[in-house]
Specification:
Structural class: alpha+beta
Number of strands: 4
Shape: elongated
Order of helices and strands: HHEEHHEEH
Distance between the termini: 121 Å
Amino acid sequence: MFKWCCLAVAAVALVAFGWMINDTRLEIRRVSERVNQHLPQILEKAEQATRTANEHLPPILEKTQQATKTVTEHLPTILERTNTATQTFAEIAEDVRQLKQLAGLASTARDSNLVAYANSVLALIEAQDARIGVKRVGGAGLTSPVPAKEWTVAARKEALVLTAVVKSRQEFLDRLSQNLFHRPWHIQFASQEPQPLRDWLRAHHPESKGL
């Protein structure tokens, strides 16, 4: 009985194995048919792409060669003009430097942050609820005082010139703190006594302390 069971199991295994082989064969056949069906189209598209590349490649290569030739021909001229322009700008810069020296504007090194310093000084003054003017000769109070904001509007025009001619923050502060007649500007808050603008800035403007 055991032999017959083993024989039956073996027969079933052989049938299953044969079925699997047949299924694999059929799947390979279906894949082959699909490949054979689409292969001509693939080959045709590949051939078209090859023909297109062969048609356009020569003009592209020709244009590339022409561009290379043009650059090679004109590069020396471009470089020469660039060198000439560089030399010209250098000469102009030297002329400007000499003119500034002739005008006395470049005898010493300038503070590179002078403009920023000037802006911060004027911004502080402009924000004050105060009046600015010159002190009365032989009397108390100020002569023709104006609000700080209004004074700053006119002072900005003067500051624009000062930042071009002065060499340091201290010189800017000294010249901004006096009028055209070298009389010191004073700042007055409410009913307080007027005080020199320069002294007030040195006390309340951080960058002006110690100047």
